[in-house]
Structures are given as C-alpha cells and as structure tokens.
Design goal:
heterodimer; A: mainly alpha; B: about 130 residues; mainly alpha; extended
Amino acid sequence: MSSFSVTRPQINTLYRSFIRYASEFEDYNFRHYFLRKYKTEFRKLKEENVKITPELWNSYQKELDVLKRQSAISKMYHFDRLVVERLDEKHHK
Amino acid sequence: MFRQSFRQLVRPVATRSLIATPRFTFPALSNVRFLATGSTLTKEDVLARSISVLKTFDIKQNADTITPQTEFIKDLGMDSLDYNDALVALEEEFDVVFDDNTANEIKSVGQTVDYILKNYLPAQELLDKEIR
C-alpha cells in the first residue's frame, strides 16, 4: 500500500483556497456561512490533530470544486446589500 | 390683512435662515479620497493599508508598532490559520493573488508589502487611459 502524506504547506494552500473562494460570494449570508464553516472546520482539524486520509483529502478537493463553482455562479446574480454590510468594503476604520 | 402681516413675519425669517444654513453642504475636498493616479502605489501606502487590514484581526502587538520587520507568527501571535486569513484579506485589499509558493514562505509584513508592490496592477480604467 502506498503511503499517503499531506504536507503542511499543502494544507495551508487548501485552506487559503477555501477562504478565497468563500469570500468571493456575492451574497452576505452565503459568504459568511462558508467563511465560518471552513474556519471552524480547519481549526478543529488543527486542534484535534486529525490525520488526513486520502478519502478526507479527496472529499476536500471535491468540496473546493463545488465552492469554486457556486461562488462563480453567485456572481451572475445581483444581491442587494444588507444593512449590516459596509458599502465600501475596503474601509476598515 | 392677516395674510400680509403673516408674510411680513415669515419672509425675513425664511430668507435669513436659508442664507444662514444652506441645506446642502458639500464635503470638504480634503475628505474625498481620490484614486491614486497611475500605478504609483508607494511602499508607505501599501504598508499603511496593510496595517489597517491587520488591525481588523486579533493581534498580540499594538497595530501602531507594526513595521516591515514584524513577523506574522512570531510577533503578531498568529497561528497558521490566522496568518492565511490575513493573507487572503490582504489579497482582497490590493486585488493581488499570492502564489502558493510565496504565500507559504512569507513571514514578515515587509515581505508581503514587497510582493504586493511587485504584483499590483493599477485599476483597469487607468490602464485603458494609458493605452489611449
């Protein structure tokens, strides 16, 4: 049986892709749901030191594809800004 | 008769109040943020904007003391997940994408600033103007 190993940079890259695509959602609720979901999920992986199996790794890759597709689709539609959203996203103060 | 006296009473007050407090005040020009012209994004700009992004994170160090030498993990007390969150936030701020090798190797704020300066593209309309 071939040994399967995932390096730390690979996981970092995967996490970054998740966060990147999640934050591209136009709709506030979806955007924040996915950001929350992957932040807690990866934190759990890190804290519980979960061993990444090939099955887990592949399921994440599939999930990433879904997220990529859905965030692209969300850009085709118009969503009204919610009152809690900043009009100017780049304004931090 | 009533009407006339009423007018006399009201008119001066109305005109006076209109002059004293114009209904529309325009914001002072200094408050309006203009887009930087051309691709002149200076190192100081990038650093200042990066710091204002980093301020939104839970960091150990006072944001005012961040310098290019500050390291994300060592000085700001971030773990690998926070650090990646910060990188993505910086990507959004400057419309750049950190390629995977760089992103995994970057340690200090200065390194991100250098990368952003190297890879930053000015807004599309400015590029169009230059072509014309």
